[in-house]
Amino acid sequence: MNGKSVVMVPAKTILNFQSGFVHKMLCDGPTFSTGSACGYSCSFCYVPAIMRKNPHGIDPSLKHEEIVVRRENPIEVLRRQLTRANGKPKITGPDEVGRVVFASPLVDVAANMDLVRETIEACRVILELTPWTIRLLSKSNLLPKVAEGLADPAIKDRVIYGVSTGTLDDRLAQAFEGGTPLVSKRIQSIHWLQDKGFRTYGMICPSLPLETREDYWDFARECAEKLRADRMEHVWAEVINVRGESFERTEAALREAGFAREAERLKAVSLGTPESKLAWEDYARWTFEGHAEVYAGVPGKLRFLQYVTKPTEAWWAARENQGAVLL
Ligand code: SF4
After folding, report:
1. Is residue 43 within 8 Å of residue 250, measured between CB atoms?
2. How high is the pLDDT of residue 80?
3. For residue range 121-131, what is the model confidence (pLDDT) as tens digits?
4. pLDDT of residue 120
C-alpha cells in the first residue's frame, strides 16, 4: 500500500472519546483513526515518536516509513463503541448535536482508494449512530472521492474537509513530505470541494522559516488567495515543530532535495542555543502576524497553533483575540 508493507493489528478502539485535539480546536474531544501508521512518510511526522511506545507490539525493526499499520475490523469496532448492549446508539441528547469528531490524529484518511473507502464507511457509521459533525484532514488529493461517498443531502453538511500543506511549492513539499500528492493537486481538490458546496477549512502547516519578515506576510496572503480562504470556515496554521530525529530527518531531506537555504534556515532556529531560541520565536511570531493580518477582518477565522513557554506565554496570550491558540 503506497509502496509500504501493510501490518494489520488487532484494536479494541477506533474512536477516542476524549482526545487532546480539543485544545487545537480541531474537534470537541472525539477523534477516530482506522490506522496507526500512515501511507505517507513525512519527515516531520510526530507519529513515529508516539509509536515508539509500540502499543501494537509491532516488530521494532520496522520503521514508520516502511509500514502502513491498519487496525483489524475497524468498522465493526467503531460500531460497537457507539452502540449500547441493547443495540441502541450510545451518543444521544441535545448536548451531542453538532459536536465535532476529528480524523485522524495518526494517519492520512485518504492516502489511497482503499483508505478512502474505509474512511467513507467509518464516517457513515458515525453519521448514522451519532448527531456529530466530522472534520477530516488529509494531504491527499483524494478527499473529493470521500466527499462523493458522503454527498447525500441528509449528511453532506455534517462533514468538513481540509487539506494540509505548509508550502505552495510542489518541489519543496515533495522534499520534506513523503509520498504525498503534489500541493497543486491538493489545492485543486479543495477548490473542487468548494465549488460543489462542501464545507472546507484550511491547514497551513507546517510552514518553514523564511528569509525576511516581509516574506511571511507575502506567504500568508498567497496561501489565503490560492486556497480561497474566503470560502473556508476556519484556517489553522502552525510553524514546524520538529524535535530530535524528526528535525534531523527534515533538515537532511531538504538538503538532499537541493533546498540548502531552507535547511540552513531551519537549522538556525532549531539549535537550542539562546540566539536560536530567539530566532525561533521571531519565526513563529512573524508567521502568526502574517496570517493574523490576512484574517483580521474575520474574527475567529484564524486558529494559529503555538506551543508556548513561560517567557513567551504573555505575548501569545495577548493575541488570542487575533487567533493565537496556546498549546
Ligand atoms: S500525512 Fe500526516 S500522519 Fe501521514 S506521514 Fe505525513 S504528517 Fe504523518
Report:
1. yes
2. 98
3. 999 999 999 99
4. 98
Residue 115 Cβ contacting ligand 1 at under 6 Å: no
Q: Which helix (H) or strand (E) covers residue 149, if one does? A: helix 143-149
> What pLDDT is recorded for position 193?
98
Q: Rounded to an integer, what distance in angstroms lies between the CA atom of residue 109 and that of residue 63?
A: 20
Q: What is the CATH number of the domain that holds 313?
A: 3.80.30.30
Rounded Cα distance, 275 and 247, in Å: 18
Residues of the domain holding 187: 5-326
Q: What is the mean pLDDT of residues 20-34?
A: 97
CA-nearest residue, atom 7 of ligand 1 = 45
Residue where the block lists cell 484494536: 11
User: Which numbered atom of ligand 1 lies nearest the CA of 106?
Assistant: 3
- What's the gap in Å between 122 CA and the centre of ligand 1? 19
The number of folded domains in the chain is 1
CA dihedral 82, 87, 92, 97 (to 10 degrees): 60
Q: Which pLDDT score, from 0 to 100, does residue 56 have?
A: 85
